[in-house]
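Lay summary

Proteins are chains of building blocks that fold into shapes. Our project writes down both the chain and a compact code for its shape. Here are two examples, one after the other.
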Amino acid sequence: MSVNYTEEQVKEMVAQYSENPTRETVEELAEEFNKSIKSIIGKLSREGVYEKTVYKTKTGEDPITKKELVQELSELVGIEYSMISGLEKSPKIDLKRLVDILKEE
């Protein structure tokens, strides 16, 4: 079985990534070791140091689905989810606004 990375390379990768755990660091490591980005991510993952980037919305918030908003809405108003599940077809911004208003009360 061939070895893709030497022990020294692994130590260097882990050290660099641990110091600055960003996508840019992964790209730099891929270029430095002449490997694909996926290969670097895979190795860092196996070493237990890779941190998956967390998706954020355009406004910088954690993403939430319409279904989750309607479920929260059902809890806030005390109605069974199945009775208002059709609200999932509403615009997300309106559902979010409704939830926010009810939370304030």
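And here is the second example, written the same way.
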Amino acid sequence: MMWYWSGGMHWWGWLLGALMMLAFWSLVIWGVWYLMTSAGRGWDRPPVPPVPPAPPAPPTARQILDERLARGEISPDDYRHLVEVMNEGRGHGAGGREPVGTSAGPG
């Protein structure tokens, strides 16, 4: 038995063909656009290196004295004396003495 198709496609065949053609050209145009815009995105640039962490702050004089006392390099009496000397230099009191350079000696 032979089917008669009227010598062509029906309306849905033409619609499907038109939609497929539209999808194909849309994909081609999008691909060209993507390649053109991605060229300026920096594929040739090296990656940005991570920021190194900041170096630790150097220890203060008090921390160094504390460590020396803990290691046994200085005695507790020496430690107290050195802390007093440090405090005098910062203006926390002169321990009953005048600051250096302000004595009214002979002259």
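What can we say about the second shape? Residues 58-92 form one domain.
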